[in-house]
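User: Good morning. I'm curious how hypoxanthine would be positioned relative to this chain. Could you predict the structure with it bound?
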Amino acid sequence: MSTLVKQLEETSAYIRQFCKTVPSVGIVLGSGLGNFTSEMKVECEISYGDIPHFPVSTVEGHQGKMIFGEMGGKKVVAMAGRFHFYEGYSPQQVIYPVRVMKMLGVDTVLISNAAGGINQNFAVGDLMIIKDHISFFAINPLLGKNEDDLGPRFPDMSEPYTSALISKARTIAERLQIPVHTGVYTGVTGPTFETRAEYKLIKVLGGDAVGMSTVQEVIAAVHCGMQVFAMSVITDIGIREEENRITHEEVLQAAKDAEPKLTSIFTHLIREL
Ligand code: HPA
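Assistant: Good morning! Here's the predicted structure, ligand included:
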């Protein structure tokens, strides 16, 4: 057994010892989107700092804990706070929690993030269901020796975001009268927001939104055979010609304001899985 698989087993064994919930759905919460867990019937919480082999979250707006419980009749685990490459974590550390979720029994992962709008039809506070992604200098977390116990050397990426979940979410959004876009997320390393020229380049490349997370987690989830659904909250419009400074504070605020819409769609989607 590889060192990594041994560590994943130690991590999961530790978690299982504290928490009897066996989750089938995993949720990764983005910047300013941590309140989602108030909709859960919480059964158990574990701080990242207490979990063996787990990195520790440092960014403002993240709580840094795994929260287990029930939602919409499903057993779920939510990660309030994720690990970003820009914080100095290795790509393997960034995806560690996704792999732990898999070890704990999760087969479907729902991911949220705050993202900059590239598509000129987007406005701050809009939601975008991610139908595909472009990795724009985000380092592939599967580089190096393949972990054959987890997944294949060359994972297919023709449908990283499960189309059945996208259709279901679109139907739910329509029913709830929540407008949603569907588009391509471009994953960058950050921590700088993009230059004007970069926002324009991402548009030319075919990106509708841009953010500093998600891509590596999705690659890990696809690698180990999970179904994936992901949604962005558009927190700023980078591509504007006019004066256009972007701050972390405005990103957090916009995410917080849009959170109820995202929570509603996630909650209904979980119920209907
Ligand atoms: N660019 C990159 N990441 C982001 C942005 C952005 O404009 N907004 C929120 N996360």
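The chain has a mean pLDDT of 92. The pocket of hypoxanthine is lined by residues 114-116, 188, 190, 193-194, 210-212, 235-236, 238, 246, 251 (CB under 6 Å).
Let me know if you'd like a different ligand tried.
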